[in-house]
């Protein structure tokens, strides 16, 4: 197809392999928007307050999500924590929990027995692939070790990915929200048990965007134009090694602007598939990817087929969506009567693709 001239695209409903649905009022607000974005199956992050560290917590959380929006399939995860043991992993597997999420500083030797059991149980390890930043007061310019900042935190983590894969070659590992060309290369250098997710916003943003707009600030931060373009190329050339994981992360608008620190997270759930299509079109126009590289097969793979294959799940609903160019519009603010939180979405107020369920 001539992608930039196509006015309508029909696709299987998408699988979003990385979502933050929060809890309480925020969950009531954002969970109903999953299907609005063209998605009917999601992998849910466990970083609630407190985090989801037990099987019972995880199953109860899934029940709350199902009560809000029953027409979505929720794949659940545990938060890597010192209370997670091989016994907990076995219990989680029996309960139908899919994986375990590790945040910065979580991948350490004491967890190796947990990873070994996950490998045995065929569970997924999801890695937030960044090294914690060096405290500003703790590094001297004469130090031989390079200081870690939000700009190099991801590349600094990549040797850990390599060593984990070498230690546990059959453990299914996801390097979440790849944001650099180096991260893409690291995933490709591993065996088929390792894959990466790519967000919608990292396909559009560069450093200058989030430096001036708190609603574009996330972690990992968007990097250089060259990194962004490498991500666009990975979408159409990945051959299954990379797939959609939006890392859609809602925060009340007051947390994004008006407090001492800006909360990290970009909210994209409402228009998840559309944002990616827009980014690909801009990539074609700039000559970063070829028009012929954006194919029906590739789109179906990136939006669902490749992620479901890696996670070894199916879309039991068999639903499809129709997207129409220029017929959708991003709301200025996501709000709901009776809910006190309000969320500003990515590219608020802009025109995009509409989504219609068949």
Q: How would you describe this structure to a colleague?
A:
- This protein is an alpha/beta fold and 358 residues long.
- The chain contains eleven helices and twelve strands.
- A six-stranded parallel sheet has the order 5-6-7-8-9-10, with helices on both faces.
- Helix 3 (86-95) packs parallel to helix 4 and helix 5 (153-167) packs parallel to helix 6 (181-189).
- The longest helix has 16 residues, at 296-311.
- The two termini are 21 Å apart.
- Pathway: Pyrimidine metabolism; UMP biosynthesis via de novo pathway; (S)-dihydroorotate from bicarbonate: step 3/3.
- One of its GO terms (cellular component) is cytoplasm.
- InterPro entries: DHOdimr, Dihydroorotase_CS, Metal_Hydrolase.
- Its cofactor is Zn(2+).
- Side by side, the strands of the main sheet go 5-6-7-8-9-10
Measured as a percent range, the helix fraction is 25-40%
Query: Can you count the beta strands?
Result: 12
Individual helix count: 11
Q: Report how far the terminal alpha carbons are from each other.
A: 21 Å
Structural class: alpha/beta
Strand proportion, as a percent range, falls in: 15-25%
Low-confidence stretches: none
- The dominant shape is globular
Element-level helix/strand string: EEHEHEEHEHEHEHEHHEHHHEE
